Structures are given as structure tokens and as C-alpha cells.
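HUMAN: Can I see a protein plus its fold?

ASSISTANT:
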Amino acid sequence: MTVFEGCLWGLLGAAMTEGLDLYTAIHTTDGWPWQKKGEPAFAPYIVAVLIRLGVGMGLTAAFAASGQVAGALAAVTVGIAAPKIIQQLAKQGLSHSAVAAPPALPIEPAPTGALPQQPTAPEATANPGGQTSAL
């Protein structure tokens, strides 16, 4: 999947979520939610929607660029879940072991006169039935 395709699928996932949220708000308030007292006005509502769409599209683009998303369903799912994914990444922080460099291990000197041993592959043997198998 290209990054551009990932952007489009992520945008679709984010838009689906926003559409369902708007649907729920319309049924809860019996009209446009921004026209009801106590609800955000139209301009802040649109800004929030645009931010949500950008987050879904951007995170899906990053997943596609890194090869983590191969299909449309996965890209749509990342677009839908983008805010929660970012929340979890922020909660874990950059010091989490998944993103931190592994600790450096001390290098022990090799014994003098000894050659390093190479791992050996399993030997192939022939079965009585003529098939070859690895031990």
C-alpha cells in the first residue's frame, strides 16, 4: 500500500467515526448539535472534525510508510482508532522499551587461541521412505 492510499483509507476511517458521532449527536439533541444551548458552536465543531480527520489520515500514512499496514481494512481501522493509538503512545512515553534503544551489553574478550564457534545448521538425513528431513 502506498502512503497516498493509506492517507485516503485513514481519512475514510476517521470520517466514518465522525459521521457516527454526528449521527448520535443529532439524535441526542433532536437537531444540529451546534444549535443547542450548552453545545459547542459550529466553528469549534468543524475545527474538531478537521483535527480528527487529520489525525486519522496522518497516523495511517505513518503506518503505511513503515509497512505496518498492507490492506484497506487495516488502514481504515487505524483511521478509526487513531486518537486511541496516540493516547496510548503518549501514555507509554518515549522511554518505553519498544522505542528505547536496548542497553549496551559488555563485550567479553575471546579466550586466547580459541576461534569463535559458528552456529551449525541441522543435518539432513534420509528417511527410509526416501524423504529428507532435518534433525
Observations:
- Strands lie at 124-126, 132-134.
- The first helix runs from residue 3 to 29.
- The chain is about 55% helix and 5% strand.
- The helical segments are 3-29, 42-65, 72-92.
